[in-house]
Structure formats: structure tokens, C-alpha cells
Prior knowledge:
Layout: E1 9-22, H1 31-38, E2 47-60, H2 71-86, E3 89-90, H3 91-94, H4 105-119, E4 126-134, E5 140-143
Parallel strand pairs: 1-3
Antiparallel strand pairs: 1-2, 2-4, 4-5
Helix pairs in contact: 2-4
Amino acid sequence: MTAATPTRIAYVTRIEHFSAAHRLNSVHLSVEENIALYGKCNHDSGHGHNYKVEVTIKGEVNPVTGMVINITDLKKTLQTAVMDPCDHRNLDKDVPYFKATPSTTENLAVFLWENITKHLPLSEHYHLYEIKLHETDKNIVVYRGE
């Protein structure tokens, strides 16, 4: 960059949808405590959601390519980090992270953050900024790695 070319920061968001089943249950609570806390979401058979996840990358707009991140790279990352482990899965049974961690939307957002971070191509010009996870139209969790 020259003094005449200021650094431009942009936020690039990609949206994916996936379906997954889970049961809200904490191994740290008794059966009675789980039922009292999670209600019908603690049912033995579990339940499912059609999740929508918005993944935002923050970074410098490259003056040569005009991109913050190559969308193809982001798409591949989300396939590996989100879709492969979560789509059409039972989170509690198929994702090792949730063996001892309740599969709440908050914890799912943290899991996705950690998994995306592992698979996102390294760059000093951009980073994962935010995950917005929609469990339903009315229940949404935003996680920024804090």
C-alpha cells in the first residue's frame, strides 16, 4: 500500500443451512435437574432444527484482487468445518465435542467458531469476525470468539 491508497476494510458473509438433531442434556446435572432446566428439549428422543449459519470474515480489501477472501476458499472451509460434521447428524452422538458439552445453540456456535478457525486458510489480512447461528427464526446466537 502506498500513502495514496488507503486500506479498506470489508466484512464478507457467507450463509449456509444445515439440519441436525440434538437433545439438551448436561452430564453435570441429575435427571431431575435436566428435565427442570431443559423441559421438552430434554426428551430422550431429542428433536431437530434447520439451522442457518452466517459466517463473517473481516479483512483488508486486496487492491489487486478486490477481495478480502476468495469465496471459493471460504465455501470449502464451511463445507469441511460446518456441513460435513453437522449436516444431517445427531450432534450429541456424531460430534465428539458434544459428548460432555450440552448441545445448546451457544455451544454449537462456539464449536463452529473453533472448527472454522482450524480450517480457514491462514492470512494476516483477514480473520474470522463473527458467527450468527439461527436455531429458529426467533432464536439466534451471535459469537465473536470472546
